[in-house]
Amino acid sequence: MTPDLNKLEGIATQVRRDIVRMVHGSQSGHPGGSLGCADFFVALYFQVMKHNSDFQMNGKNEDLFFLSNGHISPVWYSVLARSGYFEVEELATFRKLNTRLQGHPTTHEHLPGIRIASGSLGQGLSVAIGAAITKKLNNDPNLVYTLHGDGELQEGQIWEAAMYAPHNKVDNLISTIDVNGQQIDGSTENVLSLGNLRAKWEAFGWDVLEMNGNDMQDVLRVLELAKSKTGKGKPILILMQTVMGNGIDFMMHSHKWHGIAPNDEQLAAALLQLKDTKEDY
Amino acid sequence: MKKYTYTEKKDTRSGFGAGLLEAGKKNKEVVALCADLIGSLKMDAFKNEFPDRFFQVGIAEANMMGIAAGMTIGGKIPFTGTFANFSTGRVYDQIRQSIAYSNKNVKICASHAGLTLGEDGATHQILEDIGLMKMLPGMTVINPCDYNQTKAATMAIAEYEGPVYLRFGRPSVPVFTDPDQKFEIGKAWMVNEGTDVSIIATGHLVWKAIEAAEKLAEMGINAEVINIHTIKPLDEKAILDSVAKTGCVVTAEEHNRLGGLGDSVAQVLARNNPAPQEYVAVDDSFGESGTPDQLMEKYGLESGDIIKAAQKAINRKTGK
């Protein structure tokens, strides 16, 4: 299916509205990384992945997605709702008592679309490798996708998994790193430098691609390229450059909006920059 | 009083290896992962029989737990194998988030638990693992007593849906249970009925409890012995029924006094029918190097220790 760029960008704008409204609604959550990854999520769920909104935990005969940096749950919840996994009205319950939309994603409340809890960082790549191995054992030709934060790469388990996947030719796996250069306490450069990420992942044996995560056309191009590289003996790693807070000028280029909520005035100012395209929940 | 005998001694980890092979033959969804300890975990037979369903992950236990969790998505039943220390403390958060909270059908199989690992010393002798695992909501915790029971337990957990911690050990210990036993998760096994004191034991301490009961009988004390192979969910009824009859209890385990079987039993009694309880357990301490027998003696986990504890519990009950 030829992608309709205007349509996808329109959905991404609506997803950004959802993100700031959800975080404002509960006065907590993580808008920065969520906004930066909106285009990636929309591309995955509305164009790239073969997936079924009639949710089955086993995920047989469809592509799977795992969010390892679970704190950017707002963007995932919005995209899951907007692609039919549950009613968009439920987004209003984000982080509130008795919600299925917990602060960090979980299977515990049985929210359709979620297959593993995440939040404690560094665990999602291992889980995705396990799911990818099971797909091979089941002769299921579909793919497994993951997303990780760049700060998350400071967790040691990531590198255990990074070593495992190429050694065992887990080549039905496309992992993406959100390289926004920010973490809670400041820039990744200042907190704990990540060094040359391309060289590191290549040295571990991954096929490394780069993309501009805030350019829908580039996101689609690189994800399709990544798909074409699967099944060739190597896992695929995409270094996705994004701007934290993308889409709302006063939230961009700073770690300050990693995990705080906008007040009423900030919400109004943010929504002025994002056109309502599919109706708010 | 039933008389228990044995003709051979075997390690419980070999019971796990035999059970894993049988579970693999019975169900093709069973897969196994190991963190560079295939021989120690006795996983060779499974690996040789099912090379495509066996996964060597290297010395990377956190990754192993995550991979196991992911493998359940699509229907596999993963058994992870490494030492108890590296199966629990080292990977607690991975188990907590990716397995327990996510309710994944992973079987965490842990060898070399407790002091009887021996000469390697305290770095490898975890005495806190039962406590760590039983505190996780939804986690089943099993600590069988001999080769046959470990084999049966391994086969039983393959048929149970949900996360399980299966604990076993390295030393050769008497094989005294039925080789064809049916293992019921969560069901206590009445080893010997008695009226004076309930000895509630798990793992390697069950045989020592049997030895203690025989000596107590010679001293005119009629001890009831119960094997709690499943620490969670705990067979509360079996415990309460026994203590209602005997009025006092000794718990026996190769684990820290804090957080183990004894604490689980104490909680059941405190909430229902408080009774004098004595603990045979490691007294909030790390272990050390030594032979298994030397360590069990030094840390007070021998049948003689159970006898003394039983006498003390009875004295407390009768106000002596």
Protein described:
The complex is a heterodimer of chains A (281) and B (320). Chain A is an alpha/beta fold. Helix content of chain A is 39%, strand content 12%. In chain A, β2 (144-149), α6 and β3 form a beta-alpha-beta unit. In chain A, α1 packs across α4 (73-82) and α1 packs antiparallel against α10 (264-272). Chain A is globular. In chain B, β6, α8 (147-158) and β7 (164-167) form a beta-alpha-beta unit. In chain B, α1 (12-26) packs parallel to α8 (147-158). The longest helix of chain B has 16 residues, at 303-318. The relative contact order of chain B is 0.13.
Strand and helix map with partners:
The complex is a heterodimer of chains A (281) and B (320).
Chain A: H1 5-26, H2 31-36, H3 38-48, E1 64-67, H4 73-82, H5 124-137, E2 144-149, H6 156-167, E3 173-179, E4 182-183, E5 186-187, H7 188-191, H8 197-204, E6 207-212, H9 216-228, E7 236-241, H10 264-272
Parallel strand pairs in A: 1-2, 2-3, 3-7, 6-7
Antiparallel strand pairs in A: 4-5
Chain B: E1 9-11, H1 12-26, E2 30-34, H2 38-41, H3 44-49, E3 54-56, H4 61-71, E4 77-83, H5 84-87, H6 92-101, E5 107-111, H7 129-134, E6 140-142, H8 147-158, E7 164-167, E8 172-174, E9 189-192, E10 197-201, H9 205-218, E11 223-227, E12 230-232, H10 236-246, E13 249-256, H11 261-272, E14 277-282, H12 292-298, H13 303-318
Parallel strand pairs in B: 2-3, 2-4, 4-5, 5-7, 6-7, 10-11, 10-13, 13-14
Antiparallel strand pairs in B: 1-8, 6-12, 9-11
Keywords:
heterodimer, A: 281 residues, alpha/beta, Rossmann fold, 5-stranded parallel β-sheet, two-stranded antiparallel ribbon, 10 helices, 39% helix, globular, B: 320 residues, 2 domains, 7-stranded mixed β-sheet, 5-stranded mixed β-sheet, 13 helices, 14 strands, 40% helix, 20% strand
Class inferred from helices and paired strands of chain B = alpha/beta
What's the helix count of chain A? 10
Tally of helical segments of chain B: 13
**Numbering strands along the chain, what is their spatial order in the largest sheet of chain B?**
3-2-4-5-7-6-12
Helical content of chain B, roughly?
A: 40-55%
The biggest beta sheet of chain A, please? Answer: 5 strands, parallel
**What is the helix content of chain A?**
25-40%
